[in-house]
User: What shape does this take?
Amino acid sequence: MTSRRTRERLAQRLRDQGISSENVLNTLVDTPRHIFIDEALSHRAYEDTALPIGYNQTISQPYIVARMTELLLEAGPLDTVLEVGTGSGYQTAILAQLVDQVFSVERIRPLQEKARKRLQRLKLHNVMLRHTDGGMGWPDKAPFDGILVTAAPREVPRELLEQLSIGGRLVIPVGDEHQTLKRITRTSEAEFETEVLESVRFVPLLGGTVR
Assistant: This one.
């Protein structure tokens, strides 16, 4: 169930759903999703579905990981990307293979520690992790060429918009009961262009930290 052929079948399903970036699809094929979930669920690793990872969090379904990554990179390669919500580390690992540097924040320390070990196992050394309230981002490392958020706030956090470089892109699910995926591009110091893309379902973006 964890063979390359199984991963390639998943990639073909994602193509059929409209994912067109071969760079993104090849990265998903090369990345062992089964190591990012509990062993008891590893037989479901290559289903196109979200799976629980503890602490009321999930590993996003592969379609969403591919879609958000593709949206982030659509206008060209990026140097520095902020990920809000490390979670299992799977989305982090995908990003780390496609951009120069990933800065990833997570509010739940035990999840972060597991993710750190998985990223080390894959020898992905261009990731910096921080245990902090995700909605605040990582202002010390700003500005970022891209920001990807893996949990849904009710409204787009102003702090994250301020951490985008000019021309930088934020991909984020927004909403409470009804959530939509948005891509926001910073066009000048004070102006932002927003695209509303599709309906999604994410866990809520919560404040505070968990040790």
The chain has a mean pLDDT of 94. The longest strand covers residues 164-175.
